[in-house]
Design brief:
Layout (H helix, E strand, L loop, with lengths): L1 H10 L2 H10 L7 E2 L2 E2 L3 H4 L3 H9 L6 H5 L5 H7 L1
Antiparallel strand pairs: 1-2
Length: about 80
């Protein structure tokens, strides 16, 4: 199911991300290799998807927060 989540993130499909999370509550904290999936939306320009993952319980560490330059408040909150 992690692969489906990664594809939904890449496509910017927020509804699919939410549906997948509903089926597996731990999915928001899944990893793509060593990379937490919450960091992927920043690389694909999918800010709404990133926010959805955070809303769904994804853990945001300083590295995930810093992945998107528009999140300086998140970096400060983590520090």
């Amino acid at each position: 199911m992690t692969e489906q989540l990664i594809e939904a993130i890449k496509a910017g499909d927020e509804d699919r991300v939410r549906a997948l999370q509903a089926a597996d509550e731990d999915l928001a904290n899944a990893k793509d290799g060593d990379l937490p999936v919450v960091m992927l939306p920043a690389y694909y320009g999918q800010r709404a998807v990133a926010q959805a993952l955070i809303d769904l319980g994804a853990e945001v560490d300083v590295f995930a927060a810093a992945a998107d330059e528009s999140w300086p408040d998140r970096v400060a909150a983590v520090l």
